[in-house]
Structure to design on (1572 residues):
C-alpha cells in the first residue's frame, strides 16, 4: 500500500488517551525495532487546543475533521483515542479507507456496533488491512511474564482467578457529573471502563472461554452536581461478577473467576489486582506495583514455598531488554509503547495482532451478559457467542 | 447457681478445637481478670486418648460420656468443641441442665437444629444461663480495633466490603477423604467452614443486615481417596457470594459485600482478608498478619493519604494491655483466650455475651440462602428472618 | 540427681521476663515431649506482689529469698529473670548448688562477671549440671529455618549481613528515667539490650566468628524526668556497629555485618530485621512479622527469581508440628516456650544446650569491643578472645 | 547569549546515561512548560554508533569531537553523560565557552578535579552561565514529597537516617572486568557510584551538614575475568558509612546517618532505601517502588499510628500534575525528565539550580573522608570543608 516511504500515522483524540498514545508514538522508535513511521497528524474537534497538543506531543500537523484525515493518501495508520460512542463510525470508515486501525477499548458501547466493527475488520483483513483493540495491560511486562508462566504449565490446571480493579476518583459525592456517568454516552460505568480490562486479562492470561456470567451492579452515588444542578447518574459505580470458565488450561474441570470493580473504593487509586490459583502454582499482580509479579511454585519443597516477589525488570523479561538495566522500573505509560511496537510489527509483517476486534467483541459480549444477569437478579447468563480470531503473540 | 466455689468447666472434644480451647483455658487467668474457675474435665470418645490429652492440656480429669458430665453438679460451664453435627444435641442438653454453654462455630449443620438451639438458649437465658457461639476472630485485637473505627464513624458510610478466606489444605487431589468432605457430616464445605467466619465479621464489624444473597459453589476435586478407594466429595471446595447489606452504617443507601472462600487456593494458608471501603475511610486486614491493621483516613490531606500499617500491639488496643510490651506480637491462639475471657465475664455478670446463638443462627440463615441461590443458578435469595439477640460488646 | 520425681523449677523474677518465662513453663508440656517437671516456686523481692504473680502464672509457691530457694533439695532448675546486674551472683550460687541454670540475656553487665559465670558453668558441667543463656530468638521458627537454609549451603558463601533492631519506646523525651538508662545498673543502653540479640543471631545463623568491631554510640535524649527532677541518661539510645567476620561459611574471604539498633526509632515497635546476602541466595526477616521468612534462591532462573515470603507455619518447619495447622500464626511468647523445651531436653539428656554461657560471654566481648571502639572514635577493635563451648542444636 | 532562538542542546555520551538523558530531553516539553530548545547534537567517540544513537534518540545530528561541539555558537547547553574521569575537562571547557552545563554524577573522580570544576562554575556564574550536577533522585516525586514533609517540620527533630543502596549486578564472580572496577578510571566502586546518591539524599532531604565520617570498605570478589585472564578489582564491592550530622533540622543535638551500599547484594536490583526517624514522625522509601512513600505521623493517636503507604501519584504531589491521573505510576526515567525541566527553567530564569557543583563537591569530600577513614581502620574523619552554594528549590 505504500512504497518505500514511512508509515503515516494519525491519532484521533488528544485527551487522556491521546496524550498516552502520543507519548508511546514519540518513544517507541528509540527503544524498539519498528518500521519507519511519521507522526503526521493529531486530530481533535477544537482547532486551537488540538494545535497546541500536536505541538506539545510532537505531531507534525493538527486537524479537526477526522473524515478528511482518513481520506489522506499519506495516512496509513489511524489510532482512535476518542470516547467509546464514536469508535464504530471512525473505525469502520478508516478500515474501509484501507487504513490500519488501532482503537482504544472498549471496542464500542453496544454489541451491535461492535459486531459491525468486527465485520469491517474481517473484510479489511482480506485486503491486508490490520486492526487491533487497545487492551494495553497485555503489554505490561509482569502480566506478559505471568501469561508465559501459565502457558508453560507452571500453574498446572487453573482453578480460581480473583480479579479486582479498584479506583476512588468517584468516591467523593461532589465529584462532577460527566459523559462517563451517563448510560447514553458511556454505555456503562465501572463495568465497561475497568471490568473490561480485568475480563480481557482473564481470557488472555489463561486462554479459557467464558461459559457463563453472574453479576450484580450498584450505584452508590445516584446524583452528582451538573452545571444546572443535580443530575442522575445512570451507570454503575461498582460491579461484581463471577465467570464460569472452560478450556484446556482448566483441565477441563472448569474454573471460576471473580471480578470486582469500583470507582469509589477509597484509597485504591488504580489497583488492578489479579490472583491466579492453579493445581501446581499461583500468581498475584497489582497494577499499582506494575513492575512486580508474585509467583508461587507449588513444586518447591513445602518448607521453602512462598510467593516470590519477582521484580520484572530483567533483560530476560518481556519487552525489558529495550529499556534500562535491571531494577530500574518503568511506568504505566510503556504498556502503550509496547502496544504500538507490537501493532507496528504486525502492520509491517501483515499479520493480525492480538487483541483483535473479535476479541474486543468477546469482552463486550461478556459485559452484555453481566448487565443482563444483574438486571434479572444475578442468575447466570450465557454470553452471546462471537466469532473468534485470536492470533496469539 | 454456685456459692463461693470456682466455676467448674468441661470441654467436650480434644482435637484441633479442643486443643485450642484448652490452651485458652490454661492461659486466660494469667493475663485477665476473670472469675475463679477450675479446669475440671476434658471429654472425648476414646478413653485412653482423652486421658492423655487431659493430662497434656491441664485438665484435672477426663471422661468419655458427655451426658454424665453435664449432669455433674460441679460443672457450671460446657465448652463444645466437637464436630458440627453433634452441637445441637449436646448444647441443648447442657442448657437444659442449666450449664453455661460456649459452642464452636458453626452453630450446627442445619437451620432446623440451629433454630432448636436458639429456642433452648432463649429459654435458658430466662433462667440466667449464658450461651455463646465461638466466632473467635471477633477477638482478634486488630479486628476489634477495626470495629471500633467503624463504629466511631471513621469510615463514613460503608459502601463495599471485600472479604475472602483462602486456604490450600485441599489443593492436593490426593488429600484424603474425611468427614469434612461429606454433606451429611459437614453440612457444607468451604462455605460453612470458613465463609461463616467472613460473614460473621461483615455483620459484626459494620452492624449491617444481610438483605439478600447471591452465590456460586464449586467442587474442583470431585473424588478423593478413601480407605476403600475413591469416594465422592459432596461439599464445595470454594464459594463466591455477594451480599446486599442494609442498615444505618450504610447511610442507608445500602452496601455490598463480596465473599470468596476456598480450601484449594494454593499458597494461601489461612488468609482471611477483609477490606472495608466507606465514604470517609477504608480498612484492610489479613489473618496471616493478624497483629496488623491497615487504615486509610480519607480526611487526611490528599498528598498524605495512604493505608497506615498499624501494628496492633499497643496497650491502648483491645485486649493488648494484658499481654506484652508494644511490638511483641501475639498468635492466633489468643483469639480464643480473649473469647473465653469475655465469656467468663459475661457468666460472672449474668449478661449475654456476643455472638449469641441468635447471631449464629443468622449466619446459618445466610449460608442456607447461599446454598439455595447457588442451586438455582445464582439469583439473589432473601435469607430466612431470624430472631435477633445481639448484645454488643 | 533426682530419682523418679519431676524436676522442681524455680523462676527468679516476675516482671516482664518472669511473666514471659512463666507463660512458657505453663505451656511447654501441652505441646512438646519434655521430662516431667513441677512449677514449684516463683521468687521476688516483694512478698505480696510475688505471691499474686505466682498465683496468676501458675506457680505452686512464692518466695522472697532466692538463696533459700536454691538451697532447697526439691529445686533442680533455676531460671533467672532478674535484671542483668544480679545475674552473676545468682547464677554462680545456683550452679555451685548443683542446679541447672537458665539465665536471661545479657549474661551479665560486665566482662569480668561474665567470665566468672563461664568458669562456674564449666565447673558445674563437669558435675553434669546444665547451663544456658536465653537468647530466645534462636527459637523463633523462621530464624531456625533461616539457619537451616544457611547451614545447608543454600546461600553459598555469606558476604553481607544487615541487622537492625529498632524500637521507639524511648522516643518521647518525657519517658521517665529508669534503671535501664543508668550505666551502673544497665551496663549499656540499646547496645546491650537489643544489639546483643542481633549479634547472637549473626553468629548463630552463620557460625562465623567476629574478628573485629567498629562502633558509634549516641544518646539523643541526654536527660529524662526522675522522681526529683531531670536526671542524666548515661547509656546509649542508639548504636551502629560493623563487624568483620571470618569463618568457613564465608568462604573464607570474610564477611561484613552491620548492626544498627535504636530505642528512639519512631514507628518501629520491635523490629529486629535481619538480611543475609550470600553468593547463591539471600534471606530477610522481621520480628514484627515473625511467622514469615523471605528467601531468594539465586539458582532459580533469573526471570523467576524473587524473595519468597515463606509463611513458617508448616509442620515441616522447626517447632511447628507441635502447634496449629498451617497458616495459624504463633506469637512472640513461644520463642520462650521453645527455649524451655530445648533446655529441658538437654537437662534430661545431660547435654549442653546452646547458647552456652561461653556463647553469652562471646556476645559480651563483642559489646565490650564496641564500647571501646566508640570511645576511641570508631576505629576497629578486636574483641577479647573467649573460650568456646558451642554445642550446636 | 541568544536572541529569540531556541536553546541548542548537545549531549556528550550515548551509553546508559546518554540514553536516559535523551529520553528525558525527548519527553520534557510534552509535559512541562520549558523554554524552547532543540535537540541539536549527540556526541560520542565512535562515529557510526553515535550516528545510530542520534537517530534512535531523536537528535538532529551526531558528532565525534566534543571540543568542536562546545565551540559551536548554536550550542547553549552541554549535558555531560560520559564516565567520571572525563567530566572535569569537558565541563570546564564548556563553562569557559559560556555554555550552561549539566554533568552526571559523580562531579569527577578526584577532589582536585572537583575543586577545579567548582572554581570554573563559580567564575561562569558571574557571567550568567548556569551549572548543575545530576543527582537525579532529588526529582523522584516521592523523595521530593519526603523533603517537603521534613522541611515542613512534620518529623520534628531528625535523629536517625538509615540509607542503603543495594544492587547485585556484580554478585556473580564471573561478571567481567570493566572500567568501573579499576580505581584509575572509576575512582571508587559502590562508594562513588551509589553511596554518592545516598549521601546527596541525606543532605538534600534534611539540610543537615556532615560533620564527620566513619567507613569500612570491602571487595568480595578480588579478581574478575578480563580479555587476557583474571584481573585485579581495585575498587570496593560494598561500603559501610556512618555520618555525624549537624544542623537546625536536628535540633541541634546532632543526628546520625548510616549508609550501606553494595553491588553484590543478591536479590536487590536497584534498592535505594531511605528511612528517616525524627522526634515527631518518620519516613521510608525504596527506589524499587519509587511511586510510594511511607510516612508515620507521630502526632496521630497511638492506636491509629502506622506507616502510611502514600501512592505519590496525585496532582498535588511534586511534578505529578504534568503526568497521568492518580494511580498511574511513572518510571525511573522521569527523574531525569524532571531534572531537565528544573535545569531548563533555571537556565531561562538565570538562577542557579540545585544541586550545584559545590554540592557535588561536598559529596566528593564526604566520599574522600570515607576512603580515608576506611584506610585508617574506621575512625571518624572530618571531611574537607567546601564552599557552599546551595540554592534550595
Amino acid at each position: 500500500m505504500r512504497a518505500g516511504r514511512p508509515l503515516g500515522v494519525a491519532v484521533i483524540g488528544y485527551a487522556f488517551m491521546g496524550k498516552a498514545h502520543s507519548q508511546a508514538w514519540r518513544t517507541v522508535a528509540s527503544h524498539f525495532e519498528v518500521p519507519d513511521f511519521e507522526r503526521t497528524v493529531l486530530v481533535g474537534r477544537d482547532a486551537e487546543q488540538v494545535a497546541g497538543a500536536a505541538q506539545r506531543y510532537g505531531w507534525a500537523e493538527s486537524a479537526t475533521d477526522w473524515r478528511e484525515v482518513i481520506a489522506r493518501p499519506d495516512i496509513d495508520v489511524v489510532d482512535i483515542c476518542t470516547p467509546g460512542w464514536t469508535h464504530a463510525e471512525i473505525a469502520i470508515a478508516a478500515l474501509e479507507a484501507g487504513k490500519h486501525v488501532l482503537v482504544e477499548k472498549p471496542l464500542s458501547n453496544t454489541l451491535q456496533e461492535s459486531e459491525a466493527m468486527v465485520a469491517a475488520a474481517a473484510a479489511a483483513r482480506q485486503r491486508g488491512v490490520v486492526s487491533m483493540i487497545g487492551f494495553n495491560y497485555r503489554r505490561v511486562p509482569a502480566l506478559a511474564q505471568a501469561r508465559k508462566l501459565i502457558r508453560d504449565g507452571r500453574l498446572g490446571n487453573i482453578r480460581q482467578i480473583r480479579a479486582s480493579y479498584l479506583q476512588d476518583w468517584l468516591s467523593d459525592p461532589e465529584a462532577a457529573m460527566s459523559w462517563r456517568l451517563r448510560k447514553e454516552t458511556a454505555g456503562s460505568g465501572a463495568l465497561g471502563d475497568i471490568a473490561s480490562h480485568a475480563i480481557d486479562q482473564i481470557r488472555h492470561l489463561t486462554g479459557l472461554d467464558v461459559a457463563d456470567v453472574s453479576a450484580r451492579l450498584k450505584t452508590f452515588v445516584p446524583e452528582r452536581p451538573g452545571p444546572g444542578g443535580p443530575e442522575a447518574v445512570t451507570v454503575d459505580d461498582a460491579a461484581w461478577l463471577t465467570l464460569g470458565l472452560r478450556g484446556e488450561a482448566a483441565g477441563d474441570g472448569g474454573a471460576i473467576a471473580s471480578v470486582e470493580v469500583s470507582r469509589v473504593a477509597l484509597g485504591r487509586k488504580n489497583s488492578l489486582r489479579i490472583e491466579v490459583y492453579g493445581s501446581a502454582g499461583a500468581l498475584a499482580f497489582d497494577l499499582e506495583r506494575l513492575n512486580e509479579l508474585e509467583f508461587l511454585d507449588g513444586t518447591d519443597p513445602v518448607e521453602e514455598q512462598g510467593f516470590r516477589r519477582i521484580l520484572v525488570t530483567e533483560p530476560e523479561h518481556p519487552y525489558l531488554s529495550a529499556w534500562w538495566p535491571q531494577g530500574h522500573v518503568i511506568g504505566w505509560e510503556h504498556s502503550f509503547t509496547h502496544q504500538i511496537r507490537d501493532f507496528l510489527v504486525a502492520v509491517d509483517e501483515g499479520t493480525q495482532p492480538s487483541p483483535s476486534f473479535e476479541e474486543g467483541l468477546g469482552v463486550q459480549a461478556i459485559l452484555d451478559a453481566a448487565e443482563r444477569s444483574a438486571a434479572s437478579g444475578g442468575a447466570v447468563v450465557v454470553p452471546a457467542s462471537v466469532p473468534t480470531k485470536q492470533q496469539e503473540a
Q: What stands out?
A: The CA atoms of residues 347 and 359 of chain B lie 18 Å apart. The longest strand of chain B covers residues 209-218.
